[in-house]
Amino acid sequence: MQYVMFMIPSVYGSADADEMPSPEMVDAMMTYNQELADAGVLESLNGLHPPTAGVQVRFGADGSSVSEMESAGAVGGYWILNVSSHEAAVEWARRCPALPGDVLELRQIQQMDDFPEDVQDVVAGYDL
């Protein structure tokens, strides 16, 4: 089973949204990342620039518009895990060295066999 864990840092909701993590925090996170890799469950991970460096593209009846991102609740990074169960994904999430107020959102990644056959037939026509 594949899961994505989104890190939603509490600092993004504050005036210090562009603040970089301390060397100690980076060391703790890298230790955690190494544990994920050593356990064979880590498929991918990336940190993201702060939301002040991004934009949002919103779609409406009249087309799309681009605006600056709101910082609160923005994703700061993600991991993709390949684990045996939902419970295993939750246990790995609970071990993350997050700061007080941070949130990890854990979501299972859809696999093709999660979709009805007619949808699978449509997707089968593409070479992706």
Report on this model:
This protein is α+β, with helices and mostly antiparallel strands and 128 residues long. The chain is 26% helix and 29% strand. The protein contains three helices and six strands.
Give me the secondary-structure topology:
Blueprint: E1 2-8, H1 23-38, E2 42-47, E3 55-60, E4 63-68, E5 77-82, H2 86-94, E6 103-108, H3 117-124
Antiparallel strand pairs: 1-5, 1-6, 2-5, 3-4
Question: What labels describe this entry?
Answer:
four-stranded antiparallel beta sheet, 6 strands, 29% strand, Alpha-Beta Plaits, alpha+beta, 128 residues
Structural class: alpha+beta
Widest beta sheet: strand line-up: 2-5-1-6
Overall geometry comes to flat
Distance between the termini: 21 Å
Largest sheet: 4 strands, antiparallel
CATH H-level superfamily: Dimeric alpha+beta barrel
Instruction: Please give the CATH class.
Output: Alpha Beta
Helix and strand run: EHEEEEHEH
Mean of the pLDDT scores?
92
Query: Which architecture name does CATH use?
Result: 2-Layer Sandwich
